[in-house]
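Page 37, top half.
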Amino acid sequence: MKVGSKMSFFPPPENSNELFNAEIAGSERLRALILIGMLGLEAILLMVIYFFYSNRYLSLFNSHIAIYAILIFAVLIIIYESVVHYFIRKKVRVFFHHRNVFGYLNAFSEITLLTLLFIFIVEHSGQIVILQAPATLTYFLFIVLSTLRLDFRLSFFTGALAAFEFVAVSVYYSTVFSTQPTDYFHPDLTGMQYLGQGIILLISGIAAGFVADVIKKKIRVSWEHIKEKNEVIDLFGQQISPQIAGSILQKKDELSGTRKNVCVMFLDIRNFTPFVEGHSPEEVVAYLNSLFHFMIDSVQRNNGVINQFLGDGFMATFGAPVSEGNVAQNAVLASIDILQKVRQENKAGNIPDTKIGIGLHYGEAVIGNIGSAVRKQYSITGNVVIMASRIEQLNKRWHSQLIISGEIFRELEEGIKAVFMPREPVRVKGIRLPVLLYVFNEKCKNQEQEKNRM
């Protein structure tokens, strides 16, 4: 047999930093959209409240300046967040390169715009009641949504900045207005009130930071699981079923190198060289694909793994990297299924007249990843591999299609044993003592099926 190169069917897994950057960009855009929606809703609801309580509002502010200022602020923030959303979508690479600077600048702009709104209202209305109004709770909206940045420091910065600006403005105006007599209504703004709210704003920023950190860690863990799964897919390509892939993820320590009993299958397509010489490369590839399509399906359905394609055949393993059921019997059932399908395809004329040879052996092997950090291959080594290859070659001498070792035969159920005929112990190349082998007998199989139907 000519050993062919192993193909890689899947691209390498994505870089986790790129995934994280994409997640951050998506979260920042989502945050901008939420703020647009929330502030728009806030402006509408404030207008509704103003409509029902306009007299009370005028008794406090003596003008419409506060409601106008809030509406103008809402429009400005909506425009600002729309620009942010557009910038991230169009200049995503620039955003990645300056993500931290952008985050702090954006948080500073949003919090400071809100603070300037309150300063504007107090300066033009002469009333500090706005600093006790529900409008100051808008700070919490920015703090809560800072969690979408997935950065503890940014959330803490947002909360600390909001606390500092609110307390600074409150201290200044409570001092200024307490010494200036006026005809307007000035509710007392005590240190307990503004310092208390400042502390709550700061604590809210810390809490938002912890939430952001937890979310980020969970995202990292999820990506690690995805990365591990992609590594399994990259390592085994299309050799394994999804069920086995799941088992590998649960028992991934077995990939590092271990000894275990496995069943090795070698399959060879007879007279392949003459076929290659008489057909075009496209016809050869189409022929192999038509055969391997159902052969691989039979192997995988019986919990086997295709380890390597060998040009005119392949090597498969049952019981590694994970064991599922009776691995020897799984291998025999897969082999018989392949022989039946080859016969059916021959009879239907779907493929050129094809004969194959299969050899199976059961024994201990060393399994694990071999290679470097750049390139690794899942490898199975040991006498069991050599023995299975030698057994398969005896098919040519005996004009048979499936030969199994005595080690395989002993693992089979009685009903399956009946379809194999023993041969005289034979010397196998490279093995010192004669070995007992069994040959698959199609007639015995048909008789067994007839017996079962009766």
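Page 37, bottom half:
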Amino acid sequence: MTDRQNDTTQWLPVVAVGLATFIVVTAEMLPIGLLTPIAEALNTTAGKAGLMISLPALLAAFFAPLVVLASGGIDRRKILCGLLAMLVLSNLASAMATGIVTMLAARVLVGFCIGGIWAIAGGLAVRLVPAHSLGLANAIIFGGVAAASVLGVPFGAWVGDAFGWRAAFVAVAALSAVVLAMHWAVLPKLPSARGSQMQQLRAQLSNRALMAGLLLTLLLVTGHFMLFTFVRPMLQQMAGFGASAIGVLLLAYGVAGIAGNFFAGMVAPRCSACMLLAIALGLVLVPLAFFAFGDSERGGAAALLLWGLAYGGVSVGLMTWIIQSAPRAVEIAAAMNITIFNAGIALGSWLGGRMVDHAGLHANLWLAEGILLAALLLTAAMAYVALQRRSQTQAGVVSKA
């Protein structure tokens, strides 16, 4: 086998896992771009329609560690394929929903798929590529999040505007079937990795660096989804955009997100704390930007691009910190991060829904700003401790020499 064939064999599974994260995030976030028409069709409020995001995210938070702990020695390839098959069915069920109750019932299955797929995919890079390729592999796998913003969510919004929101769910079901076929064809056997046991979970609860990373995940994701769940109403009611512009704007947001993802993927392995500090600062500036000049189309678009660039690096930046904090328990640490990540999505979209329904979009911006500011302060403390430890390590090496 040639070196080029070896490279292809090595990277095709990575691309397949990246497509799995892409399609599951697309399915998870699809209602965001269609929130207004779905709420109108199902005769419910925007806040209640936001449960289409918070409910599956909450269930994903519960299922992520459960999948790792309960799956035993089952081949991870088989688990991923089974979850992708469920994703096909859940999106078809969403397309046939006749009311908010039946829609939320379909989204329960989406939550199971989100938790399971992310729990397995989040720590797979270390099993698919050598150590020197981890930065790029993680960027590709977590690039599925940003790519979902670039292609998935705007595509869903476009299909929904052109053919109806039900057609958008059918389209995601079809794409999920394609990704399932690719997984079955190119993924190698992936037996259970050592360390995904209950004792490993208990041991990590005393890992201070990991616990700090998990708290940061909760703060960043909660603050982001308080706002992003209602990005369409913000762009239409605050910046004055028409409905036809939403798909293009989300596309631009996603392009900025992909740039942020790959930049963070390359930088984070060298200094994950520094990267997280830059990301937190960028997200703190987003609500301020909407307050300062988000009442115009040009200002709203500029704030959205800053938002995409900053949030694009969140997943890979956080996961790099998590993996570096627990190198001997990557799979269980990744599952813990996915749990907190999805808890943040659920909490953020729920809090945002309450604020938007009872106090309005501006009040929601203020509360999210407070949460993101707390995340920035925590990140600064984490960066300080990490840099102090690095200096002490370097000083120890010099003294020994």
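Margin note: The domain at 7-188+206-395 is CATH 1.20.1250.20 (Growth Hormone; Chain: A;).
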